[in-house]
Amino acid sequence: MPDNTDTCPCGSDRPFASCCEPVIHGATAPSAEALMRSRYSAYVTGAWAYLRESWHPDTRPSRVSPTNTDWLGLTILKSGTDTVEFIAGFMEGARVMTLHETSRFAQVDGHWRYLDGVCDVSEAARNSRCPCGSGKKTKYCCMKKSP
Ligand SMILES: [Zn+2]
Ligand SMILES: [Zn+2]
Fold first, then answer.
1. Which of 69, 98, 133, 143 gives the lowest tally of CB atoms within 10 Å of its CB?
2. CA of 21 to the centre of ligand 1 (A)
3. Which ligand has the shortest distance to the CA of 141?
4. Average pLDDT, integer, range 81-109
5. Residue 23 DSSP class
6. Residue 79 confidence (pLDDT) above 70
7. What is the third-level CATH fold of 16-145?
């Protein structure tokens, strides 16, 4: 769990304590993007109960199974009223993977909830930008860190 002064895992450059943490603890997300960011941070910090709660009741799984995915970073590509397109990077063994998803959100009683998403998972190309959001090529970034 990051401490109060740590930069938020969602890549906002704001402290976790004033970005995603309050939303994970029950504050109302002001936008679909804010909710999406908080859900990414919840995956990073292991807030499984919150992940289930922030799911839309129509599509909510009976339980969210904990994973120990090694997330590399989040980049928001396009943020609409109720859709957010993003790229998230993660490690799968020694491979740098890119998750490209367009998520849909809907409001329930004034709270944004995650409805569903269309996602595409692929191995990051060596010469394309690293999915961690550093702006560097993958081969000079997260690929180098792998064993
Ligand atoms: Zn955040
Ligand atoms: Zn990287």
1. 69
2. 7
3. 2
4. 97
5. H
6. yes
7. Nuclear Transport Factor 2; Chain: A, (3.10.450)
